[in-house]
Amino acid sequence: ALFRATATMARGLVAFWLMAVAASAATADEHAPSGVHIAFGTRDDEMSVTWHTLASNPGDAVVEYSLLVLSDVSASKPAPSSRVEGTTRAFVDGGPERSVRFVHRVVLSNLAPGATYKYRVGNPATEAYSRWFDFVAKRSRAQIAAGPPLKLLALCDQGHRESAGVLQLVAAEVGDPSTRPDALVHCGDFAYDLDTYSGRNGDRFLADVEPIAARVPYMTSQGNHERAYNFSHYAERFTMPGDGASNGNAYYSFDVGPTHVVAINAEAFFWPEYFDANYMRRMYEWLPRDPPPA
Hints:
The chain is of the alpha+beta class.
């Protein structure tokens, strides 16, 4: 009887331990940074970094970064020389589950033109970090004129399940310094769709594109596939420069080298329940005030 009681207690302790380990793993996974992507900032010396977690602690919105020098090329964990804290915003999906994800944003400033940086995102207190990524800061016009020439990649209509082959090809191009573009422009229709399965499909797509978008500026605009809940997934998940910060990333512009790129919200013509005449007027008035580089 004593043996049976001891065995029963042992099984109970093992079960409790397994449940505790599983709960701990689930908690750690909820705090793991996911969908890391960068974009040009409003100033030429800025780069914004955006990612999300499924739970949040104080101090989650931190980027540690350092200038990559020759001795760091083979280093997997270079010592960070700078740490920047940003903002965290809870985003509630509009579907029946009302699922919540926490979107973290950090802006890196005073970057040297054309310099390569290594960085990671996460929480120094809990040590819930992403892996290390690298990016090249926006090159100056003089650097682009001296070569290599400006290179922009453009994609549209990329799904989580439908576009794996395309994303693999782009990732290979981004991974090779000799073929890496200055930026990737994605002209709408993400994931098919960002809001599908209470946003989990959008989470998976941003994880799919992370090997690309965490390394080159991912400059986006919205399409009809982002229309759910007044385009809220698009507005909340991305961080575009300039006027994009105040209009849900719907229209904005950026300069790179001699090129002036403008994103316009063409969806405003098709969804009057979301975009009224006042919205259209503001966008039309903004465009002439958005001059190209001199």
